């Protein structure tokens, strides 16, 4: 497990997140899940776009560049939609809908990945 913190705002974005770094793990992503609890997340790396086809719940997607700086936030991405990270997007963090607002995460913020999140 990993923990994702917003260094710029000194807030926690995800207390319990996992990494999806293989092709298969990124492809499967959150499929089959009934939802994400507050504090949960999935870090997709590398990933510059996200699709929510066949998902059953909305998510927030936070796209980051190679320096873990937020380049785009897509709040409340509904099922059967596509989100592009845009210029510079290298990784994507999928979280429960409302997480970006609760943590104050916005474009330009720097995030940090810490090993040993709750879980």
CATH topology: Jelly Rolls
* Helix/strand/pairing category: mainly beta
Kindly report how far apart the N and C termini lie: 6 Å
| DSSP summary: helix tally | 2
CATH class: Mainly Beta
Helix content: under 10%
Number of strands: 9
* Mean pLDDT across all amino acids: 92
What is the number of independent domains? Answer: 1
Strand order of the largest sheet: 6-5-8-3-2-1-9
Low-confidence stretches: none
- Rg value: 13 Å
Could you write a compact summary of the structure shown?
By secondary structure, this protein is mainly β. It is 9% helix and 43% strand.
Describe this structure as you would to a colleague.
With 119 residues, the chain is mainly beta. It has a single domain, classed as Protein of unknown function DUF192 (Jelly Rolls). It is 9% helix and 43% strand. Strands 6-5-8-3-2-1-9 form a seven-stranded mixed β-sheet. It has a two-stranded antiparallel ribbon with strand order 4-7.
Could you list some keywords that capture this structure?
119 residues, mainly beta, Jelly Rolls
List the helices and strands and how they pair.
Layout: E1 2-6, E2 11-20, H1 23-28, E3 40-44, E4 49-51, E5 59-64, E6 70-77, E7 82-84, E8 91-96, H2 99-103, E9 111-115
Parallel strand pairs: 2-3
Antiparallel strand pairs: 1-2, 1-9, 3-8, 4-7, 5-6, 5-8
